[in-house]
Amino acid sequence: MSLGATTDEIVKQVTPFASRLTQHAIPELSSRAQRVTEGTPSEVTPQLPFWSWAVVLCSLSILLFSACMGSLPPLQEQKAQILRDDVRINVLTRAAFLEAWGPPTYDRRERTQFFLVKNGMYVPRFRVPLGEYPTDWNFAMVPDWGEFFAYAERGELLGFIEDRLVYREQMTPEEVHALGQHWEKEELTKTRLEGS
């Protein structure tokens, strides 16, 4: 069938196909429909084999387990964990750190890419030299809004995605101050560019 075919040419080419369809396929479909409506419920309802029920049950169990693992401990328990230096990824929130350690020396919120590493931590792009990647990277990247707290007196850089701790790095106070000053310069440059 060519693009410039006339309506008559198209009808001539389609007619044999349409007649075969009406002769064979439509009666077959109607006879199947009739057999289904006349059959007993056990003939109509498909029976699933045992292994498929096992798969469904396992899937539901995994879903329930992940839902339980995804819940956060109460804020007071999180705060107690932080004060015991039991800092774990994905189970602590910003509010818990603010209550336990107070306000950070520097904080920043930015959209960035995170390298997902094998221990479950998300390493922000700005902590990896350009053109390189973390040694234990599992080849997954997550673009998201991150909020970062830098505590100079503690030598800690914390990263949060959606209010959950996803990154922790211990640094010297000098490194924390250098990072904070870099953030301030970036913010100043950004403000100037937006103002012009």
Q: Report the end-to-end length measured between terminal Cα atoms.
A: 59 Å
Described by strand count, sense and barrel closure, the largest sheet is: 5 strands, antiparallel
User: How many beta-strand segments?
Assistant: 5
What spatial order of strands do you see in the largest sheet? 2-1-3-4-5
Number of domains: 2
User: How would the global form be characterised?
Assistant: extended
Helix content: 40-55%
Low-confidence stretches: 61-69
Mean pLDDT: 80
Order of helices and strands: HHHHHEEEEEH
How many H/I helices?
Answer: 6
Percentage of residues in strands? 15-25%
Report the radius of gyration as a whole number of Å. Answer: 31 Å
Oligomeric nature of the chains: single chain
Structural overview:
The chain is of the alpha+beta class. It has helices at about 5-40, 40-45, 50-70, 75-85, 95-100, 175-195; strands at about 105-115, 120-125, 135-150, 155-160, 165-170. Strands 2-1-3-4-5 form a five-stranded antiparallel sheet, covered by helices on one side. Strand 3 (about 135-150) and strand 4 (about 155-160) form a beta hairpin. Helix 4 (about 75-85) packs across helix 5 (about 95-100). The longest helix has about 30 residues, at about 5-40.
Short account of what is shown:
This protein is of the alpha+beta class and 196 residues long. It folds into two domains: 7-66, no CATH class; 75-195, no CATH class.
Task: Write out key terms for the chains shown.
single chain, 196 residues, alpha+beta, 2 domains, 5-stranded antiparallel beta sheet, 22% strand
